[in-house]
Amino acid sequence: MLVNKKNTTGAGSSFDLLREREAKVLMHTYGRYPLAVSRGAGSKLYDLDGREYTDLLAGIAVCALGHANPEVAEAIAEQAKKLVHVSNLFYQEDQVRLAEKLLATCGLDRVFFCNSGAEANEGAIKLARRYQRKVKDSAAFEVVSLTGSFHGRTLATLTATGQDKVKDGFDPLPAGFKHAPPNDLPALIAAVSTDTAAVMIEVVQAEGGVVLMDRDYLAGVQRLCRDADVLLIVDEVQTGLCRTGAWWAYQHFGLTPDIVTSAKALANGLPMGAVMASEEAAKGFSPGTHATTFGGGPLLSRAAETVLTVMNRDKLAERAALLGQKALAMFGRLQTEHPGKIAAVRGLGLLLGIELTGNGPAVWRALLDAGFIVNLAQDKVLRLVPALTVDESDLAAFAAALDGILAGS
Ligand SMILES: Cc1ncc(COP(=O)(O)O)c(C=O)c1O
Known about the structure:
This protein has 409 residues and is an alpha/beta fold. It has two domains: 14-62 and 315-408, Aspartate Aminotransferase, domain 1 (Alpha-Beta Complex), CATH 3.90.1150; 70-313, Type I PLP-dependent aspartate aminotransferase-like (Major domain) (Aspartate Aminotransferase, domain 2, 3-Layer(aba) Sandwich), CATH 3.40.640. Helix content is 38%, strand content 18%. The chain has 13 helices and 17 strands. The chain has a seven-stranded mixed sheet, with helices on both faces. The protein has a four-stranded mixed sheet with strand order 1-2-3-15. β13 (342-348) and β14 (351-356) form a beta hairpin. α3 (70-80) runs antiparallel to α10 and α11 (316-337) runs parallel beside α13. The structure holds pyridoxal-5'-phosphate. Pyridoxal-5'-phosphate (PLP) binds at residues 60, 116-118, 121, 150-152, 202, 206-207, 235, 237-238, 263.
C-alpha cells in the first residue's frame, strides 16, 4: 500500500545531500531517477525518508523473486560463511549443480558462467566466431543482429546493439557486425552471407520498447540459420528465467537456438551471466580460450541455484503468464477508456509495454510521484518488468493510478 508521505527531495534533504556528493565522485554515466532507495521487500522499495514505492521494475528484470527474498538471503548468508570464491582453476560442486539445473530448463548441453548480460553476449559472439574458425574451418565471422535490439555496452555488444545512441563517440567500432530490421525476413535473408557466423536476436526487444517478434518471422529465422549453416544466438538476458511465461521466451515459438545468453534474474541481484550452448556449438571453446575470474563462484552459484529452485517450485512461469494476461486486459481497458492517449499495449508474460502517444516523460514522472516505479523506454513506452512474485493488486493499483493521470493529462 502506498504510504502517502511527501517525497522530500527539496534543498537540504538527505536525498539532496547524497545527490551533491555523488556529483563530485562518480563518473557521469547514468541519468538517475530522482530517488534514492534505502531498502526493499518483495515489490516494495523505500526511499531515504521511508516513503514506500511499488516497484514494477525490479532492478530492470533482475529481482524476479522480489527484493530481499528471504530464501535467497539465507542461501547467500550461509554460503558466505562457508566459501565465497575460489578460482576456476578448481572443480566446484556448487557450479556443477547449478549448471545441471539450468541446462535442464532449456535442453542445451553446456554452460559458461560469467558476470553480466553484456559479458554473456560477448562470450556468445566469441564462441560463434571460434566455432566457425576452428570447428567448421570457415572464415565466417559476421554477426547479424536486429535494429532496435540491445545486447550490452562492451565494444562488441554495443556494436551488435541496433541503436545508434549507444555507439556515439566510441568509433572505430569492431568489424563484423550487420543489422537488419526486426520482423522483416527478406531483409534478414539479404543480410546473411557466407561471411555470417551467427544471427543474434531477442525474441522480445525489451530495451527497444517491448517489441515482439512475430511467430512466422521467428520460424523463418530458424529456417534461414539452418539452411545457411549459421548459428542462432538468442539473447534471453531480459526475457529469460520465467519472465515471459516460459523458462525461456524462445520456447513459446518452438525455436532450437544453438546459443542462449542469460543474466539479470539469474542470481536475483548478484551479478551473474551465462552462455548456454548445444554440444556442437560449445566445441568452439577449448581450455584457455575463454575465462573470467568471478564466473560461477560458490556464492553466486548458491544464490542462482536457489533462484531456479524457487522458480520451479512456485511455478513462476505459469504465474507470469497468467498475471501478464490480466495486466494486458487491464491496460487494454485503459486504452479504450482514454482514446488517443495509448498507441499500443503489448507484452509477453510479465514483460509489459504501454506505448503512449505523447507526454511519455510527464506521465512517467506523475507515476513516480504517485509511488509507482516503471521505466520509460524509447521516451514513449512505459515498460513494466515487475518481480514474478508481484501481487495482482499492485498491478491493479498501477492501472488505477495511470487511469487518473491519463484522465488529467
Ligand atoms: C537483452 C539484453 N541483453 C543484454 C543486456 C546487457 O546486460 P548487462 O547490463 O547485464 O550487461 C541487457 C540489459 O538490459 C538486455 O536487456
